[in-house]
Structures are given as C-alpha cells and as structure tokens.
Amino acid sequence: MKNTILIAVSLGVAGAASAQKADDFLDYQKSGTFSKPTIMKNMKQIAIAQNTVFFKTISTADFVKNERNAIGGRKSGGATVKAKLSAFLDFSDEDPTVEDYQRLTDEFHAYLNKKLSDAGITTVDWAKISQHDFYKEKDNDEEETPELTSKKENAYYRINALKGNTLLKYRPFGNGMNVGFAFMRAKRAADFSGDLKAPVLYLHTVVDFCDILVTADVKSVSKYSSDYTTIDAFNKKYKANGTVIANTKVAGWHTWDGQPMGGRVYLTEKNKSDVYMFKEDIPSGMPYATELIKDPSKMDKRRPVFGLTLGKKMDLIPVAIVTTKANYLAAAKKALEQFADKWVAQIQSGR
User: Fold this and answer.
1) pLDDT at 110
2) N or C terminus: fewer CB in 10 A for the chain?
3) Three-class SS string for the chain?
4) Under a CB-based contact definition with an 8 Å cutoff, are residues 59 and 212 in contact?
5) CA atoms within 13 A on the CB side of 189
6) What's the burial of 43, exposed, middle or buried (CB within 10 Å: 0-12/13-18/19+)?
C-alpha cells in the first residue's frame, strides 16, 4: 500500500481566473427539455431576499476507483479503493468569531448591491423586503444558528447577510437534494416577487480555503514492483495520492462522481425560476497561508458501521493550513468581491 501527499501554497491564481469568460463559472440548471434562462437577461431591478455565505473551516475530498479489466471495463471480482484527504484551517493567532464572519458577509452584501446599482440594476430596499409576510414566514425546518456546523467531514459557518431569515435552505455538502420552493410556498414566493415588482434572489455562496486533489488506483499483480506494496492475501495492490493547495476562493466544484457541490444562484420572478450552480472556482488571488503541515492527530479513527466499507479505505494524513486571522479574512473578502464582479459582468454581457 502506498500513499503520498503533496502540499503547496497556491500563488499567482488570479491571472488564471481572469482568463475565464464572464459566464464560465455558472451552469444553468434546466428544469425541462426546452427551458432557457430569461430572468437575468432582462433584469433591471432585483430584490436580494437571502444572501447566505458558507465559510468552510474543514474541507474533505474523496476518490473511488474500481479495478479495471484489459478493455477498460470494471473487472469481475475486482477490488475497489476509496481514498480520502482532509484539510483544516488553523489560525496561529486567534480564530475568527461569528461576529467577524457576520461583518464580512454584510460587507459582501453591501458590495454586491453597489455593483448591481453601478450596472444600472436597481436593488429593492431591505426594509421593504424584510417587512413582507413571506419573508417573515422563513423556513421553519432550517436551523438558524450561525455556529460552527460539521457535516459529511466538512465544517463551516453559515451566515445570512444582515442576520436575515433563511427562506430557502441549501446543503452545500453531502448528497442531499437541493430543490426550490415546494407546493404552496412556491405560490407564495411568486406572490412575493409580484408584490416587490422585481425578481427575487436567494444566493448561497461557499467560501473554501484550499484545493484538494485525490487520486487512487488498484490492480492485481503477480509480483512486487517499486510502486506497490502487498497488503492482503489476494495480491491486490493499492495506492493513493493527494495534493493540498492553500487557495481561498468562492467554490464551484464537483464530487468525484460529478455532482455539483459549490454555491447556487436561485432567481424567481412571479411563476418563473432560474437556477444556476457554481461550476468553476473564483479564487481570491491572494496568498494567505503561512505554513502547511501534515497532522496525523486529525485522522478520522472512526470504524465503518458493522465493519463494512466500500472497498479498501485509504485515509491520507490530514493537512493543517496555518494562517492568521487578518490574512484569511482579507482573502475571503477578496474572493467574495471577485464573485460579485464576475456575476455582474455576466449579467451585463447577457443583455
């Protein structure tokens, strides 16, 4: 069994990001065979009813590989390997508080409003939004606490701009379905847009702090080689490799099986909804890490339920990305501003 990790500080990523087209980072989610986005194209005003930011403090990536036969198909009776690598955000001075994250989210909210206004898109006053009956209903099934939450080996702070209500829930991690408004709430959401006389935005943005790349392989061999080490009686050879790069960004990534897991732009206008997923990262372009360290103490020592697992489990040694509070908050702020710049540019280019 062989596993290796490469850790590096990401530098010069801003130039690569700016080379993308303005519309590269969003992927329209079709609701039917002939559905096409229309709301952003004709948008002259907007009501930002929910602006939620997920600030990640733990990121985990995994990769599953099945043994292949000579023609590339899955080998009958072949083995499976599942590799996993986690990164932890570690502050050398002090951790940001909930109030720090709230301030950062509110500043992003103000910046986005200004960018939209500068582009000729009128933003509906917050007082008018927050006094509407639909806004006051909120989503009673969704937790409102901004405290640290851990799910699916990821951890994050979820912050609503202006300490607003959660009207539309979103799960940025795991395999849970992320849908829109259901049944009667969809009708009330349409009335909400109609009463405000503007499209309504429900925005979910994920701020990540690193890139994690994981690969794995498994095969049967008749003898030892320099790349593999025998680990069981069936002569199966496994390996896993991982790379961690410090990179604060608005995330637009996919799971190993292609599931989009970044943020979401959800727009409604009366009975019409347009939904976009973040398919590309938007990096801050600001180096922020002072050190990257392998930390075996953070290994997940939990055993699979009933001793069962999907193939051979290979957990790579977690990596701690060390930074200061000021460095991280500055990079996170820049990433959010980069998103606002790119999204408004996309709206303008689509007119």
Assistant:
1) 98
2) C
3) CEEEEEEEECCCHHHHHHCCCCCCCEEECCCCCCCCCCCCCCCCEEEEEEEEEEEEEEEEEEEEEECECCCCCECCCCCEEEEEEEEEEEECCCCCCHHHHHHHHHHHHHHHHHHHHHCCCEECCHHHHHCCHHHHHCCCCCCCCCCCEEECCEEEEEEEHHHCCCCCCCCCCCCCCCCCCCCHHHHHHHHHHHHHCCCEEEEEEEEEEEEEEEEEEEEECCCCECCECECCCCCEEEEEEEEEEEEEEECCCECCCCCECCCEEEEEECCEEEEEEECCCEECCCCCEEEEEECHHHCCCCCCHHHCCCCEEEECCCEEEEECHHHHHHHHHHHHHHHHHHHHHHHHHCC
4) yes
5) 24
6) buried
The tokens of 115 are what? 């960018």
Residue 339, classed as helix, strand or coil, is: helix
Write down the mean pLDDT value for the chain: 81
Nearest to 203 by CA among 319, 32, 16, 40: 40
| CA–centroid distance for 290 within its chain | 23
Give yes or no for residue 349 having a pLDDT over 70. yes
In whole angstroms, give the CA distance from residue 235 to residue 120: 66
The Cα–Cα gap between 264 and 254 comes to: 13
Q: Are 343 and 43 in contact (CB under 8 A)?
A: no
Q: Which residue has the tokens 């062989």?
A: 2
191, two tokens? 């009335």
Contact assessment for residue 212 and residue 60, using Cβ atoms and an 8 Å cutoff: yes
pLDDT at 99 over 60: yes
Selected residue with higher pLDDT from 201 and 260: 201
Q: CA–CA separation, 55 vs 251, rounded Å? A: 10
Query: Which residue carries 């996309």 as its tokens?
Result: 346
| Torsion angle of the four alpha carbons 105, 284, 25, 174, in this order, in degrees rounded to the nearest 10 | -60
